[in-house]
């Protein structure tokens, strides 16, 4: 048994996967500043962190990647550019091993890759299901905060099941779609 890593390196390929760029656009258009953001799937480009510095948004972003290559790039990037490390922390791990005791409340959570990379390998060490992981993060999103999904994901049918379930259970309410990103507002119902 070993950790289900994502043994690839994802450079920015906007035509194939525009979710991070669309999210950056949304942050900028809505002037989202000084917020706490959890980001599922940094990519090796780490564009969310770079954009945060470039535009001076001063958000505090916690990103996760299951790719050893992508986390190595993050290490190099913050060593060469410590300014990036203030507002952008990336860590290596399996999102299906999140532990809420270690998480703060977030204003915004991205869940772009729900269901893309979860299978029997994760089950072998008792990892969370998609439902458990999404619900855990709903519980770490402040009332009035935003959860963003990605309708262009090859696994969106799984992501859709989870956001619809969160709506049916009263934790989220739909608030439209920005480009490829279905958006939801966190309700006040405790998780
Ligand atoms: C296809 S890449 C997309 C990266 C970026 N969001 C983009 O659109 O350019 C998928 C990302 O999800 C991350 N990922 C996949 N499965 C994961 C898991 N179980 N836990 C944490 N991160 C995971 C990968 O490490 C990678 O950063």
Protein model, in words:
- There is one protein chain.
- The relative contact order is 0.16.
- This protein has one domain: Rossmann fold.
- It is an alpha/beta fold and 191 residues long.
- 34% of the residues lie in helices and 22% in strands.
- The site of S-adenosylmethionine has 20 residues, from helix 1 and strand 2.
- The site of S-adenosylmethionine (SAM) has 20 residues, from helix 1 and strand 2.
How would you summarize what this structure contains?
Helices cover 34% and strands 22% of the residues. By secondary structure, it is of the alpha/beta class.
Structural class: alpha/beta
Mind summarizing the main beta sheet?
7 strands, mixed
The total count of strands amounts to: 7
Taken together, the total number of domains comes to 1
* Cα separation of the termini: 32 Å
Instruction: Please name the CATH topology.
Output: Rossmann fold
Q: Roughly how many Å is the radius of gyration?
A: 16 Å
- Count helical runs: 7
Order of helices and strands: HEHEHHEEHHEHEE
CATH homologous superfamily placement: Vaccinia Virus protein VP39
Globally, the shape reads: globular
Bound small molecules, by name, code or SMILES, are:
S-adenosylmethionine
Mean pLDDT, to the nearest integer, reads: 97
CATH top-level class: Alpha Beta
